[in-house]
Design goal:
Keywords: 2Fe-2S, Dioxygenase, Iron, Iron-sulfur, Metal-binding, Oxidoreductase. This protein has about 425 residues and is an alpha+beta fold. Helix content is about 30%, strand content about 20%. It is built from 8 helices and 17 strands. The longest helix has 26 residues.
């Protein structure tokens, strides 16, 4: 058996050994071979959240994103449509755009000045011989689409067919907030010292939420619990939640806002979860007293007291959309033990910093929460890297972690069977 076959056999064995209801084995979080497989099986085949429409408001506006070894340009073309291309010159492969975002008239490679239009067509290639056919050397396109103002790309030749159905079910929840018209108030990049799956797993449960004092001012700590497994210490919070939930449902019904839980995190190619849910205290936003952080409401909604719309999408994103602002989270793998978490805050397009919102107040809760989670993820990475680590059982409240891991294992099986 050659080295490649032996490695595939070891990988298959680890996938086959995975015990439902338990964390993954050490190699899934630490080995370069699994990291490379994750890129091939997940990030190069699934729809990946990479940006928001608000980052690309005008023709020529672009953002670049790194997905494993791939670099992708997402831009608004001259017809104001979204486009995405591999950030690779068709001459000798140089990277075309180096900045994370900006605006261009054309895409000009800085190496030999090959020049492409915003439609990806090669416009100019200096010193080529007679008969050179520019039409054969356009940029390689990447699938791209916007879902209610959230921009996704797919590197696969044939994207998952069920994404259109998921988008159709999710967009009615998003559209009242008019995220396509919003503007970016802030964006942060945080590199976490842990495997990308640990970052996602950490987000999928509130078993650890005692470590988030700022968030728990407005976010109910009962997330993931049921009446049957709710501990006595959380009963008062649960009673507040029930009252707030009843009030919110009346508001959602009156305003015609969809709010019902849809939870299909595994058992399908594009796993997702969406729900409009109550917040504690004033019930308006992620602030110390729960009041709105921005006076101008998204989508000209009539009240800030709308709780939060929570959307989870496998494999790399989650979102909180409120009456006054929205926060998007994108997880991008850098190495087996390093992951980029990109967080973007969106506000009403006419909201003015210092007038309608204080930036520190807007960012405070999730900046603190992200930093706290980063420390927890680093501790988890240190632990799973030890030879003494062995998979442990999930608590009932960690059912979404199990759903994520089951979804992930299914993607690996599909890739290994190709």
């Amino acid at each position: 058996m050659n080295t490649e076959s032996a490695e595939k056999a070891r990988t298959w064995s680890a996938v086959a050994r995975r015990v439902a209801g338990h964390s993954l084995e050490r190699s899934f979080y630490t080995d370069r071979n699994f990291f490379d497989l994750d890129i091939a099986a997940v990030f190069a085949r699934q729809w990946i959240f990479v940006a928001v429409d608000a980052e690309l408001p005008e023709p020529g506006d672009y953002a670049t994103v790194e997905v494993g070894p791939y670099s992708v340009i997402v831009l608004r073309d001259d017809e104001e449509e979204l486009r995405a291309f591999h950030n690779v010159c068709r001459h000798r492969g140089a990277r075309i755009l180096e900045a994370g975002n900006g605006s261009v008239g054309n895409l000009v490679c800085g190496y030999h000045k090959w020049t492409y239009g915003t439609d990806g067509a090669l416009r100019h290639a200096p010193s080529q011989p007679p008969g050179f056919d520019r039409g054969c050397f356009g940029l390689k396109a990447v699938h791209v689409r916007s879902v209610g103002g959230l921009v996704f790309v797919c590197l696969a030749e044939e994207p998952p067919a069920d994404f259109a159905e998921v988008a159709a079910r999710v967009e009615p929840y998003l559209l009242p907030h008019q995220l396509r018209r919003a503007k970016v108030a802030a964006r942060t990049d945080l590199v976490e010292d842990g495997n990308w799956k640990l970052v996602m797993e950490n987000n999928r449960e509130c078993y650890h939420c005692d470590g988030h004092p700022e968030l728990l001012r407005s976010f109910f700590p009962t997330y993931g619990y049921t009446e049957e497994n709710l501990p006595a210490r959380l009963r008062p919070a649960h009673e507040r939640y029930r009252r707030a939930d009843a009030e919110m449902r009346e508001t959602y019904e009156r305003l015609g806002l969809p709010y019902a839980l849809i939870e299909e995190l595994d058992g399908r190619t594009t796993g997702f979860r969406i729900q409009r849910d109550a917040l504690d205290l004033a019930g308006e936003s992620f602030t110390p007293d729960g009041t709105a952080a921005c006076r101008r409401l998204l989508g000209d909604l009539p009240t800030p007291r709308l709780g939060h719309l929570a959307l989870h999408l496998q494999p790399n994103s989650w979102f909180h959309v409120l009456g006054d602002h929205a926060i998007t989270f994108s997880v991008l793998p850098l190495a087996p033990d390093r992951t980029l978490l990109r967080t973007t805050w969106l506000v009403h397009p006419e909201a003015e910093e210092g007038v309608d919102y204080d930036l520190d107040t807007l960012l405070k809760v999730w900046t603190a929460t992200n930093e706290q989670d980063a420390r927890l993820v680093a501790r988890a990475q240190q632990g799973v890297s030890s030879p003494a680590y062995e998979p442990g059982p999930y608590a009932e409240t960690e059912y979404q972690v199990e759903a994520f891991c089951a979804w992930y294992i299914d993607r690996l099986r599909e890739e290994l069977q190709r």
